[in-house]
Amino acid sequence: MDGSVLDFAQVRAQFPILQLRENGQPLVYLDNGATSQKPQMVIDTIERYYREQNANVHRGVYGLSERATELYEGARETSRQFLNARSTKEIVFVRGTTEAINLVAHSWGRANLQAGDEVIVTEMEHHSNIVPWQLLRDQMGIRLTVLRMNNRGEVCLNALKGLVSEKTKLLAITHMSNALGTINPVKEMVEIARSVGAKILVDGAQATPHMRVDVQDLDCDFYALSGHKMYGPTGIGVLYAKEALLEAMPPYQGGGDMIYSVTFEKTEYNVLPYKFEAGTPNIAGAIGLAAAMRFMVSIGLERIAAYEAGLLSYATERLKQIDGVRIIGEAEHKGGVVSFILDGAHPHDLATLMDQDGIAVRASHHCAMPVMQHFNVPATVRASFGVYNNRDDIDRLVAAIEEAKEMLL
Ligand SMILES: Cc1ncc(COP(=O)(O)O)c(C=O)c1O
């Protein structure tokens, strides 16, 4: 594949749902920030698992269970390679980004933070990287400090330098904002946090669908992702964490598989990463996620990023030509997300009218209410791109906005 339009047309053809019509029109799916559609190979992998390979893992001595275990552990190795982690011990399967962050808050946070310690988050975080820290604040007396952004939706590294102190124990930041598309300078932010000895958690829910992520290169301590946003199934995600940290952290949940031995007096925990995977895991989900990662790698992560950058600049240019449209979030480094408002029209009305044209966009606060507060808007309309979108989708989006404008204004 050389990244030409023709190749991406072949990519699009692998998504059966995109052949469907919505309200009589071919579906234009532009809500990838919420969840992506699934390619045939992911659907087939999950179907094959349930038809031919299903058994519980790590338990059976019979062939079917051994094969299911091999597939599940193979998915862990695929995830390790995808993120370039050092070891599969550093790959914990979780339900998604939300669970990954809660795991860090409740295991690492409770064991390592005390009253007066500080966690810094940015103003553009998703609620899932705000509320877990507020729970600790209310229960343990930690401080939650916000690194503000400018009106383009960018954080300032000098402001971060001014904020950190020996009280700062964790910097918890999104790699890419779901509401604005901003890609944060994670490596530079890691360096600043390191200068005061703080740990760094990166919310990668929006970054992993769009770019290559190398956790060793970023040198973060924790990295969270959600399978369903990167062409994989729902209910599965990964928490990457440095081995030494996981080793020292207490379990998050107790139950089967996370133990080595149990008596009523004493329980010995299992080795990594199983210590953090209590109960029967989402086996089909993990295998489906690995298929999605292979799908992305087969296209090429740099190629995906370059293709989507082209879509983003085309969409930005076309939207800016519409009178009354204001783009929210114009950071220099952005991924494939355009949030906008149309003067005089409520985002929900706009999105509802677009649905009648077969166009799926999100109109909401995008679980990032502080971002809405910053820009003083109740909500935005968000078009977020994936590998199967193309310029026709954007042309249809623009035509639908023009049409909606006539009806609403
Ligand atoms: C930046 C960001 N973080 C976290 C999440 C939460 O992901 P999940 O609902 O898959 O746990 C999302 C979902 O929209 C997100 O966009």
Your description of this structure?
With 409 residues, the protein is of the alpha/beta class. It folds into two domains: 5-30 and 300-408, Aspartate Aminotransferase, domain 1 (Alpha-Beta Complex), CATH 3.90.1150; 44-297, 3-Layer(aba) Sandwich (Aspartate Aminotransferase, domain 2), CATH 3.40.640.10. Helix content is 41%, strand content 17%. It has 14 helices and 17 strands. It has a seven-stranded mixed sheet with strand order 4-10-9-8-7-5-6, sandwiched between helices. Strands 13-14-17-16 form a four-stranded antiparallel sheet, with helices on one face. A two-stranded antiparallel ribbon has the order 1-2. Helix 3 (63-83) crosses helix 10, helix 4 packs parallel to helix 5 (131-140) and helix 12 (347-356) crosses helix 14 (391-408). The radius of gyration is 22 Å and the shape is globular. The N and C termini lie far apart (45 Å).
Descriptive labels:
binds pyridoxal-5'-phosphate; 14 helices; 41% helix; seven-stranded mixed beta sheet; Aspartate Aminotransferase, domain 1; Aspartate Aminotransferase, domain 2; four-stranded antiparallel beta sheet; globular; 409 residues; alpha/beta
Gross morphology is globular
CATH topology tier name of the largest domain:
Aspartate Aminotransferase, domain 2
- Tell me about the biggest sheet? 7 strands, mixed
- The strand order across the widest sheet is 4-10-9-8-7-5-6
Unreliably modeled segments: none
Distance linking N and C termini: 45 Å
Bound molecules: pyridoxal-5'-phosphate
